[in-house]
Write a structure and sequence with these properties.
The protein has 380 residues and is α+β, with helices and mostly antiparallel strands. Among the domains are: 32 residues, no CATH class; 167 residues, no CATH class. The protein is 30% helix and 8% strand. The strands form 2 sheets. The protein has a 3-stranded antiparallel beta sheet, with no helix packed on it. Strands 4-5 form a two-stranded antiparallel ribbon. It is elongated.
Length: 380
């Protein structure tokens, strides 16, 4: 089963349209990619009524003697259902499931039935005449009809031709471009630029707030540095023979803790209320929850930030910097939703907002429990 949440996504068979994915398969007909999709799945289309049986074809009796409905009618008195035709035989080696009745002795497949080609999914099933394969299906090698071309926009994964037929359809949802709540996923480039802008903003805050501590630390560090240089000139090691300064170490820890608090106060409240920091506003991207587009709240935004920001004091031994770097590049390992590790912790995803004046993917306003319509993510 695919982990792709239900919603409207671009159809990889035709990128100019979008369809509804219910987590297991497509529902409804495709609509233009720039159209506003309905809230939830598309309405179920009613099937056309079956044609009335011919009155002159020997109508069967309504009841048998005794008032009971007929249990069986010979073929001459009962017309076959619409679309009925000879069925293909089971594939070689097929065994009926437990409890299934065996065919009578001497049974033979109807004349004219075809033997399905080897490897045709699933279990040698031959589709009826006029039926269409699933969207994006590509026939196995050697079974492609003359002039076959894959659908427009279809990008099979590496090794697609060598996959068994069942595995192809299982991997197919991974090729669907996710659109959470109707919005496209934010690109890795805009996310990187937004993070660099936020780092620069937090750095300016540290210059203002941590400036005094940095000055005091420098005053303590200069004598230690001069002593280390003198020790090296005398033939000793750089810092081994130099006495440590406890106040300098305390100032360094104070700067790390203050820097962590400044980062928290800069990012968590803004993400919890609007889903956007200064960098995300400039790049027009936004953090939203997977289940709806309501504000995350401070608690959930703090949990998202904590997975990344609480490692800042561990910069003292460089472990925190390494873990934060791995977390920052983790969206590269999630081609489906581009979630970083801190996004997976908070169950959030980063989406790209449409340009100003462009139609919104969903209707504005706050959804209610009656209509289950999600609100539009605010741009500010």
């Amino acid at each position: 089963m695919s982990s792709l949440p239900a919603g409207w996504y671009k159809d990889p068979a035709d990128t100019s349209t979008q369809r509804y994915w219910d987590g297991e398969g497509w529902l409804g007909k495709a609509i233009p990619a720039d159209a506003v999709p309905p809230d939830g799945p598309p309405p179920v289309e009613e099937e056309p009524p079956a044609p009335a049986p011919d009155a002159g074809a020997g109508a069967p009796p309504a009841q048998q003697p005794g008032g009971r409905p007929p249990a069986w009618m010979p073929p001459a008195q009962q017309a076959p259902p619409p679309g009925w035709g000879p069925q293909p035989p089971p594939p070689p080696g097929w065994q009926p499931p437990p409890g299934m009745q065996q065919p009578p002795p001497g049974w033979q497949p109807p004349p004219g039935s075809q033997t399905p080609p080897a490897g045709y999914p699933p279990h040698g099933y031959q589709p009826p005449q006029g039926s269409q394969p699933p969207q994006g299906y590509q026939p196995p090698p050697g079974q492609q009809p003359p002039g076959f071309q894959p659908p427009s926009g279809f990008q099979p994964p590496s090794g697609w031709q060598q996959m068994p037929p069942g595995m192809r359809m299982a991997a197919y949802p991974l090729m669907v471009q996710a659109r959470p709540h109707g919005y496209a996923l934010a690109g890795l480039g805009p996310r990187l630029v937004a993070r660099l802008v936020d780092i620069f903003a937090v750095l300016l805050l540290n210059v203002v707030v941590n400036g005094w501590f940095a000055y005091q630390w420098a005053q303590e560090f200069l004598p230690v540095y001069r002593a280390a240089m003198d020790s090296m000139r005398a033939g000793g090691s750089a810092f081994q023979d130099v006495p440590t300064n406890g106040r300098m170490e305390g100032l360094f820890w104070a700067m790390l803790i203050i820097a962590t608090l400044l980062w928290l106060l800069y990012e968590a409240p803004a993400t919890g209320s609007s889903g956007q920091t200064l960098g995300k506003r400039l790049m027009r991207i936004k953090v939203v929850a997977l289940e709806n587009t309501e504000p995350l709240g401070f608690g959930r935004a703090f949990g998202r930030w904590a997975r990344l920001g609480l490692w800042t004091p561990a910069w003292y031994c460089l472990i925190g910097f390494v873990i934060q770097f791995i977390d920052s590049i983790s969206p590269l390992f999630d081609p489906q939703l581009r979630q970083a590790f801190h996004d997976k912790t908070a169950r959030t995803v980063v989406v790209a907002l449409p340009p100003p004046g462009a139609p919104q993917p969903v209707d504005a306003g706050v959804g209610s429990a009656a209509d289950n319509s999600p609100p539009r993510p605010p741009e500010g």
